[in-house]
């Protein structure tokens, strides 16, 4: 009897050892995955056509897809667009490159929804219990973040994905690990890579650089791995922003910027979140300046009360939240020409687009309201606190949740001729340009024409080329660039302006030897 018993025990021990080596999903991991799945569905339901009739949005096609066709990923990864690097959208579009053209928008939109759901769902992790102790209340905050803010232009596209990623970057920086739990090098590397990728994608994470540097000096061991990697990515983005905008001056005075920032905060953050975008527009159209001033005063009193009544942690959250909220809005006022004028009055606003600039502030508002409920009623049951939080933002949820469908430009019908164009362009053959009309009602964008076959020594043969920010354009013929002196020369040779222009880098343009000027 003893031998079989020993064999049975050995077998059980082996099974137990094998099971211990399998990846273990903690309850917090399952909770996070479930939250991400639910948020993905919520974000999809806000605009179902993003997957049911997938199309590209704005720069998705006009910049990222177009440039991926012409130049490929590694030639673009450090090429700024809009004044900053955009690594993750370019990586997504490069991954979509492997798919048939008809499926490229669907892939990009699905990945965008997934990454947005992950960023909105991070707060449910135990690393943020020090901010809001209840797991259920943190889940409700994640739910509200994904469903309440007005996000017409942000929904399911890679062009505006970086605004969701900015929220993820904030959560990464302010995560707090259990000091008694062992910290592994591999998770720290993964977190650092994610932080660095976001840093090289979005502009707003530069606001986090002071906190990253403080953590880098204060923390030790493996924590420094992810902090150092993320700091490097954010620093690269900061250097890019400075290099791209150093010569630009402010388009408005400091007083105008401060005033517009406060007006924008009242309308686009407080009113849009509490009453919904329709409610905010109604206040503006009826010129209820008294309501606007009252909201500003009440918000100031509320934040002052929260700072005074809360503990040391709550006070820090208020200060950091206000810093991130107002500095992010101010960046939009300074960097986006014409934005200040849209908020130059307490009433009759003219700026109702650009909601992406207020997404971070909207998320911070949800958090501050949730903390206020706990400061005022610390003994309240979790369910009661969660219901009260939802009730405060109910009108915003009803007014902002559904997004109008994109105009149908029949991407599936266009995909065949795009595939044919891609094949001919990749082979260096002469090819007629393809015109694309894209949301949100932009002018027609184009894949350019090539009127002569490319060669190994002259890859841009038969193309109209130029560089960004330079009005001079050239036609490449016999391996040389010939400056076009008369715009009438183009249509006479089967080319169009500006549809057929291919933008090259300064380095690529310098490689093409000059030739004679092209005149009519």
Overall description:
The chain is mainly alpha-helical and 520 residues long. The chain is built from 21 helices and 6 strands. It has helices at 2-21, 27-46, 49-52, 59-71, 87-96, 104-121, 135-147, 161-173, 185-199, 209-218, 223-245, 254-285, 289-309, 312-335, 339-342, 359-376, 382-392, 394-400, 411-426, 489-492, 506-511, and strands spanning 434-436, 445-447, 464-467, 473-477, 480-483, 501-504. Strands 5-4-3-6 form a 4-stranded mixed beta sheet. Strand 3 and strand 4 (473-477) form a beta hairpin.
Spans where pLDDT lies below 50 across 5 or more residues: 1-9, 14-25
3D shape: globular
Structural class: mainly alpha
Tell me the β content.
Answer: under 5%
Radius of gyration, rounded? 27 Å
- The averaged pLDDT comes out at 88
SSE layout and pairing:
Elements: H1 2-21, H2 27-46, H3 49-52, H4 59-71, H5 87-96, H6 104-121, H7 135-147, H8 161-173, H9 185-199, H10 209-218, H11 223-245, H12 254-285, H13 289-309, H14 312-335, H15 339-342, H16 359-376, H17 382-392, H18 394-400, H19 411-426, E1 434-436, E2 445-447, E3 464-467, E4 473-477, E5 480-483, H20 489-492, E6 501-504, H21 506-511
Parallel strand pairs: 3-6
Antiparallel strand pairs: 1-2, 3-4, 4-5
Helix pairs in contact: 2-6, 2-7, 4-5, 6-7, 6-8, 7-16, 7-17, 8-9, 9-11, 10-11, 12-13, 12-14, 12-16, 12-18, 13-14, 14-16, 16-17
Summary?
The protein is mostly helical and 520 residues long. The protein has helices spanning 2-21, 27-46, 49-52, 59-71, 87-96, 104-121, 135-147, 161-173, 185-199, 209-218, 223-245, 254-285, 289-309, 312-335, 339-342, 359-376, 382-392, 394-400, 411-426, 489-492, 506-511, and strands spanning 434-436, 445-447, 464-467, 473-477, 480-483, 501-504.
């Amino acid at each position: 009897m003893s031998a079989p018993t020993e064999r049975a025990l050995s077998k059980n021990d082996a099974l137990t050892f094998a099971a211990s080596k399998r990846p273990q999903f903690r309850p917090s991991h399952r909770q996070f995955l479930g939250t991400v799945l639910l948020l993905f569905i919520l974000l999809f339901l806000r605009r179902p056509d993003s997957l049911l009739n997938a199309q590209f949005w704005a720069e998705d096609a006009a910049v990222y897809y177009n440039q991926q066709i012409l130049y490929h990923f590694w030639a673009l990864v450090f090429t700024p667009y809009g004044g900053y690097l955009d690594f993750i959208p370019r990586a997504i579009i490069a991954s979509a490159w492997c798919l048939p053209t008809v499926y490229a928008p669907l892939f990009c939109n699905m990945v965008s929804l997934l990454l947005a759901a992950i960023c909105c769902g991070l707060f449910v992790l135990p690393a943020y219990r020090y901010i809001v102790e209840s797991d259920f209340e943190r889940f409700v905050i994640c739910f509200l973040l994904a469903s309440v803010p007005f996000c017409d232009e942000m929904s399911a596209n890679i062009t505006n994905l970086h605004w969701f990623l900015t929220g993820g970057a904030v959560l990464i920086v302010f995560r707090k690990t259990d000091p008694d739990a062992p910290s592994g090098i591999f998770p720290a590397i993964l977190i650092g890579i994610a932080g660095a990728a976001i840093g090289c994608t979005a502009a707003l994470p530069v606001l986090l650089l002071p906190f990253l540097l403080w953590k880098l000096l204060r923390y030790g061991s493996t924590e420094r791995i992810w902090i150092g990697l993320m700091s490097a990515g954010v620093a690269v983005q900061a250097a890019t922003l400075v290099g791209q905008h150093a010569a630009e001056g402010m388009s408005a005075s400091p007083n105008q910027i401060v005033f517009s920032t406060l007006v924008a905060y009242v309308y686009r953050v407080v009113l849009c979140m509490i009453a919904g975008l329709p409610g905010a527009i109604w206040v503006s159209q009826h010129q209820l300046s008294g309501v606007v001033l009252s909201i500003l005063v009440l918000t100031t009193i509320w934040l002052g009360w929260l700072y005074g009544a809360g503990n040391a942690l709550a006070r820090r959250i208020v200060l950091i939240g206000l810093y991130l909220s107002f500095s992010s809005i101010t960046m939009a006022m300074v960097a986006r020409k014409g934005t200040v004028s849209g908020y130059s009055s307490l009433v009759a606003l003219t700026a109702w687009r650009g909601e992406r600039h207020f997404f971070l502030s909207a998320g911070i508002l949800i958090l501050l309201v949730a903390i206020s409920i706990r400061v005022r009623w610390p003994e309240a049951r979790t369910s009661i606190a969660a219901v009260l939080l939802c009730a405060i933002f109910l009108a915003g949820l009803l007014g902002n949740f559904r997004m109008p469908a994109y105009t149908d430009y029949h991407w599936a019908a266009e995909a065949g001729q795009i595939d044919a164009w891609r094949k001919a362009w990749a082979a260096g053959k002469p090819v007629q340009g393809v015109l694309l009309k894209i949301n949100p009602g932009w002018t027609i964008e184009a894949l350019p024409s090539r009127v002569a076959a490319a060669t190994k020594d002259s890859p841009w043969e038969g193309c109209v080329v130029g560089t960004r920010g330079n009005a001079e354009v050239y036609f490449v013929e016999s391996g040389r660039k010939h400056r076009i002196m008369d715009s009438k020369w183009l249509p006479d040779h089967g080319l169009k302006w500006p549809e057929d222009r291919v933008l090259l880098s300064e380095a690529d343009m310098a490689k093409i030897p000059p030739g004679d000027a092209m005149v009519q």
